[in-house]
Amino acid sequence: MLDGVRHNGEHFDFIGHFYAIRGEMYYNDLVRQIGEHEGMIPKGYLPIGESPGGDVFCLSLKKPTEGAVFHWDHEEANYDGEPWEFNMTNLSPSLAAFLEGLCIGE
């Protein structure tokens, strides 16, 4: 199964699942997950999937990183104020490159 995510050539995380436009379950419904993460993930990022540990993979909708895939680390998030980007890692310049870079989980 191609569920391993690499960053800088090393294993970084796993894809638990991607969100679906009309997911049958709460955990994989895109619209529900957008609402669930509102106020936690900075504006300008669209949540597209989740790791088994609860971190979120996001698509950047803002310049200059528009189209890039980021990893949002829930353990480093600012839950006491405005969302910040200090807990976000740019994994790939595009969704296509991100998908092509998936590997067998380690």
From TrEMBL:
- Entry-linked Pfam families: SMI1_KNR4 (PF09346)
InterPro entries cross-referenced by the UniProt entry: Knr4/Smi1-like_dom, Knr4/Smi1-like_sf
Q: Where is the Knr4/Smi1-like domain?
A: 9-100
- What Gene3D superfamilies does the record tag this protein with? SMI1/KNR4-like (3.40.1580.10)
**Coiled-coil residue windows:** none
Indicate what this protein is called per its UniProt record: SMI1-KNR4 cell-wall
